[in-house]
Each structure stands twice: as structure tokens, then as C-alpha cells.
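User: two proteins, same treatment. go.

Assistant:
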Amino acid sequence: MSHRVTTKTEMKDLALVQEAAKAAGISCTASGDIVSFTGGALRGAVLDLKTGNITGDSDYGHTSEVLSALKQGYAEAGIRAHYLKHGGNVESRQMVGDKVVLICSIG
């Protein structure tokens, strides 16, 4: 039985969403404040950039667990953008167990 599922996120920046989607192998298109996921694990789901809500369908496997790669990519893209804005850079990315470690520098 199909169920509509909505997951609240903090994803409200289109450029960061697009970067994260690309890194996670998810294609998407944007129209105004709506991002439609057209390929990958979130195919058929929709993100409202005003609220950060992603709405999908359980029949397509749209669960909060599926969002993990996209949310992680969004956080990493946000960190990169922050450091670039302040004259810094992300020097390296490492996996430590199941955690991502970004080594950043400023100046």
C-alpha cells in the first residue's frame, strides 16, 4: 500500500541541493522553489525549497534513510561554500568509520 511520506530537512539553497544531488547520483530539475528529483534513489520525490520538506511515496522507497546521501552531500557543499566565501578551502575529505571528516584551511 502506497503512503505519502514527507521528511523535514534544512535544504533550502538550490545550488547546494544541485551539488549534493549530483554527488549522490541523483538527477533533478528546478522550477521556482520546487526541486523535482528525476533520477536515482529519489526519483519522483519533490523538495520545497521554502520549507525544506521533501515529499515522496513509500512505494518508490522514499524514506528518511534514502535521504542520507543527499543530506550529507548538502552539508558538505554548505561547508565548502562557507570556507570559499571566507577565503578558505577544503583541503581533504576522509572517511573515519561511518563519519566524514573535512580538513579545512582559511588564508
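Protein 2:
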Amino acid sequence: MKTKFMTAAIRKAIPKLYAQDGVEIEDHMVYVKFFNPYGVGTWLAMEFDGEDQFFGAVELGNDWELGYFSLKELESVKARIAGREFPFQGIERDRFFTTKTYKEAKKQG
């Protein structure tokens, strides 16, 4: 099933880039969680430019890193299972994720 990455509700809720400047990073709010259901990879989106770029945190199997990532790139990732690429979506949005602080979201994974 293809996941809708950005709903109208998410677009309305997630703040623009730099909106949380001045707030301790652990206290930044995370509005969207994306993940790879077939392997490693979790993306926590805190801010969005309204078109393509998120600011947030990424965990690819080692530790969390802060930075920017692309909506279009997440949407374009194909599923890779046992080294083979399949023609279906490889990254999904956690439909059950609720807004929480970065500190809380990291614990959840």
C-alpha cells in the first residue's frame, strides 16, 4: 500500500524551517516520523519548507544525526529486501505517530 507522506493536517501543523530556532534541540517538536519497514532507517521531521526540505533527525543504524532531508527522495526510495529492489514504496510514514519532543521520539525509535 502506498503511504501518503504529507497530509493536509501535517502540512498545517508542521512549522516552517527555522521556526524552532532558540529552542533546545531535545525540546524541538517532531511532527512526522518516516521509517523503512524492510530495514534500517528512521527520519523524524521537525520543520518543513512547504515544498521539499525537512529539518529533523535521521537514524540509519548507528546514532541520530541532525540535518536536512528531502521529501521527494523519501518518496522515491524503492523497497530493498534481501538485496533485491522491488517496485513498491520503500519508506513509509508512521500513521500512528503523534507529535512529541525530539527527546521522546528518539526513545520510541
